[in-house]
Each structure stands twice: as C-alpha cells, then as structure tokens.
Amino acid sequence: MARERFGRVVVAEAAKAYDVAEEMANVIFSGGTVVMPNDTSYLLGCDPYDYEAIDRVYAAMGRPDHRPLTMHVATAQEFLEYARDNPLAIHAAKRLLPAPVIVLIRKPAFISDELAAGLDTLAFRVPDDPFARALLERCGPIAGTTANPRGGPRYLGGSDRSMLPPADLLVEHGPTRYNIESSIVDLSGNHARLLREGAVSEARLTELLGPIERPTIKVRASLDFAQEKQ
C-alpha cells in the first residue's frame, strides 16, 4: 500500500540525515511533493514557487482554494528575511523561535497572491525539531499543510499510512516531538494576537512576547512549551 500511495518511503532512523535530505531535495527541486515529519504533525509540502506542485498539494488534501499553505523554514534568521520590517516578528524570532507555533505576518510584496490564497497575511513555521530543521535547511522553504485528515487521527509514524495523502516521497521518522497541535499567533498588526492555544500556552507566550491579546477562537487544551528561550 505504501508503494501505491508514495513513490518512495525512506525510514529516516535507518539512514543518514544527509542522505535523507539529499533524496528529499531531489524530489522537491524536481516539482514533487513530500510527506515529512514536523514537530507537531507530519506535513505534506512542496516548493513554494512551483505552482503545479502547490496544486498537487491542494488536490491531495482536498483543501479549499481560500485556505493558504504555511511556509516552513529552517531558522529564525530565515524567517526574518520575510519580516524584516515587523518589530513583533523580530521580537518573536529572538525570544520564541524555533517553536511549535504558527506565526502570521503581513505578506511580503515578493510573495505571490496565489501562494497566500489572496490574503494579505502569510503563515510561517520554524519547527522545534532538529531533524525537521535539517531537512528544511537543505530543501526549504517548503509550503505545506498538516498531512493528517481534517478531524481525523494524527499520524504517529510507523502506523497505518492509509490516513496520509499520496506523495512522491514519505520521510518516516517515528512519532512527532509534541502530541498536540501548534499554537497560532498573529503578528501582522500592532499587537500580538493569540488565535489558537496549543503546544505553547498563552501564559508562556505572554512571558516570551509580552502582552498578547486574548484568543479569538476556542482555546484548545494546552501544554507548556518547556524549552527555555533566551
């Protein structure tokens, strides 16, 4: 079944990280799609500037056109290449990232409206997982979305792969670091706003970022982000 859903499956624990990253780069840079581990879930992603590949991600997930993908980058410094004129983003890059958090910023002028699904904001991830960041260092940025079915079970690695969307490559790396969804913080305005409380609690975000506006949607069960940020 894996061969039917995926062009190839790489078990990362049985291979060198460099070799995994090189194989993934070959797929991404040739217009393919990849299911790879993130810190809170596996993601389905592709080259953010290859619009045919983006279409394949949307089709594989059955994702509505008005819901943009998230940009995944390897480092806080890389994230700042998209947000240099945003004081809130600069502060978050210093104090918070990497973290199991989605941050929203104003869409940079050089990012296409298609990638942002016509919105004036763009979401970013700098995952709190060394292996995911190593892959992104070689292959990123990657535009993607969680590979779990909406409202369905989370893929924990090494289990029933039939829940995952089809892709050219699956990078198998076992369970994700966090067993909870990411928090979402909007940094596109004058004040940080918490849109979803997840792996990083509102209290921890306030400690790291300063005053933050109250959630605007239902707060999820939270788990404090244990790693200290200086």
Brief characterization of the structure:
This protein is an alpha/beta fold. The protein is built from 7 helices and 10 strands.
Task: Please state how the strands of the largest beta sheet are arranged side by side.
Answer: 1-8-2-3-7-4-6-5-9-10
Largest sheet: 10 strands, mixed
Quaternary status: single chain
Number of separate strands: 10
Cα radius of gyration in angstroms: 17 Å
General form: globular
CATH topology: DHBP synthase
Count of helices?
7
Description:
The protein is of the alpha/beta class. Helices cover 26% and strands 21% of the residues. Mean pLDDT is 89; it is low at 218-224 and 226-230. The chain is built from 7 helices and 10 strands. A hairpin with a 6-residue loop joins strand 9 (183-186) and strand 10. It has one domain (2-209): DHBP synthase. It is globular. The protein has helices at residues 2-5, 17-28, 51-61, 76-80, 87-95, 130-139, 202-209, and strands at 6-11, 34-37, 42-46, 70-72, 101-106, 121-125, 142-146, 167-172, 183-186, 193-196. A 10-stranded mixed sheet has the order 1-8-2-3-7-4-6-5-9-10, with helices on both faces.
Describe how the helices and strands are arranged.
Layout: H1 2-5, E1 6-11, H2 17-28, E2 34-37, E3 42-46, H3 51-61, E4 70-72, H4 76-80, H5 87-95, E5 101-106, E6 121-125, H6 130-139, E7 142-146, E8 167-172, E9 183-186, E10 193-196, H7 202-209
Parallel strand pairs: 1-8, 2-8, 4-6, 5-9
Antiparallel strand pairs: 2-3, 3-7, 4-7, 5-6, 9-10
